[in-house]
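Researcher: Sequence recovery benchmark, item below. Answer with residues only.
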């Protein structure tokens, strides 16, 4: 059929193929990272082949048709199997992914434009699929660099997790969020592969006691971000304690730089609150020197007072692709937690090549009795109004002591 010589037949088949390409593009949100770039290129070439095929001679049409067939097969090979099934289009907010709509529009919570997603069974899996174990050269010692390895493995078959089994998020495939039990010393590391399923990293602990690692991962199998949790042994395990009734603190100062947090209103459970981090130079001038860190002008990680809950948040706005770009003095973001109590929030910003990790203390209060809580009823395909999936929690995700918690990837 692709080698048909009739002009009208060529036009009909070309239009049909263009429709198939459009449908494939609608499902392209199931393709991430470098595969997404490859897919865009293949589909562009496919459309160009259709145009050449319509206008070329019969002999040229045969060659162009063969090229189109090859490109079609290459494009489909870039998709996970479940993405090629007939799936209903759904729309969700990047900051509130438990909210889903059957049509495009704006988020009813924060007003951000909804983005297209597809709900597949793997995305609804509540349990982790990857486990983690820390291997250290010895117990942690204050002020001494510790070289460690994290071993990642699939829980269903104990097979090692390789880099090819993970998808890239914020320019990296593995993010390690590390904190001591007192939640005063935070590190963000990116390990390098050193063996089959093993990855090396190092850091210098500033506190005596156990440190916990939350490995922020997105498996290729599910396209869903998860946390795998493991502890690093210490020479003084479990001796430190979280400060009881620590006062809220929204100001920090490091090397003369001042960091101030502000929010539009009080923070309450299950409530999305717009916040800003403002950075001031040592001489008192607003800082416009915020550099790019992993595709953004900053990152935020908050640890709950149970030493189990972790919130990973990012500034609003699209990814930053120009490494030389600068911003400031304010960094807007959204904060939301399903848990009440104290959170120790660490910001990560880069100024003139140096990373700063200011620490803040926030209190999440109970929802007011008059406020309606979001629905926790699962969304059913075909329903016209928003439903809540319950888990995962908003844009940031929450991990607990069972090992990890999942969150949908926008």
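Model:
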């Amino acid at each position: 059929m692709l080698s048909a010589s009739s002009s009208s037949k060529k036009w009909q088949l070309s239009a049909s193929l263009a429709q198939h390409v459009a449908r494939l593009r609608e499902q392209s949100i199931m393709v991430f990272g470098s595969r997404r770039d490859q897919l865009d290129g293949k589909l562009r070439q496919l459309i160009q082949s259709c145009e050449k095929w319509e206008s070329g001679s019969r002999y040229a049409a045969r060659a162009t048709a063969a090229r189109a067939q090859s490109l079609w097969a290459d494009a489909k090979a870039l998709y996970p199997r479940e993405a090629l099934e007939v799936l209903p289009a759904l729309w969700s907010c990047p900051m509130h992914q438990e909210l889903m709509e059957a049509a495009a529009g704006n988020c009813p919570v924060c007003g951000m434009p909804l983005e297209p997603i597809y709900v597949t069974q793997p995305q609804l899996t509540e349990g982790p699929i990857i486990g983690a174990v820390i291997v250290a050269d010895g117990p942690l010692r204050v002020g001494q660099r510790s070289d460690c390895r994290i071993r990642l493995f699939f829980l269903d078959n104990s097979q090692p997790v390789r880099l090819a089994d993970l998808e890239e998020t914020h320019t990296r495939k593995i993010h390690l969020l590390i904190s001591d039990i007192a939640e005063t010393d935070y590190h963000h590391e990116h390990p390098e592969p050193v063996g089959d399923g093993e990855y090396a990293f190092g850091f210098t602990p500033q506190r005596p006691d156990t440190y916990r690692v939350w490995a922020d991962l997105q498996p290729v199998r599910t396209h869903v971000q998860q946390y795998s949790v493991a502890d690093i042994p210490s020479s003084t395990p479990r001796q430190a304690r979280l400060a009881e009734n620590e006062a809220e603190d929204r100001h920090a100062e490091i090397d003369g730089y001042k960091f101030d947090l502000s929010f539009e209103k009080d923070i309450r459970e299950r409530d999305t609150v717009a916040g800003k981090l403002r950075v001031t130079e040592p001489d008192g001038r607003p800082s416009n020197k915020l550099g790019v860190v992993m595709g953004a002008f900053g990152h935020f990680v908050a640890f709950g007072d149970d030493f189990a809950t972790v919130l990973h948040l990012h500034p609003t706005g699209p990814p930053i692709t120009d490494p030389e770009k600068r911003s400031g003095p304010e960094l807007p973001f959204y904060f939301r937690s399903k848990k009440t109590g104290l959170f120790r929030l660490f910001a990560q910003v880069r100024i003139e090549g140096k990373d700063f990790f200011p620490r803040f203390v926030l209190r999440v209060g109970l929802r007011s009795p008059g406020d309606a809580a979001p629905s926790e009823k699962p969304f059913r395909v075909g329903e016209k109004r928003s439903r809540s999936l319950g888990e995962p929690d908003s844009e940031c995700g929450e991990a607990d002591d069972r090992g990890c918690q999942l969150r949908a990837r926008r």
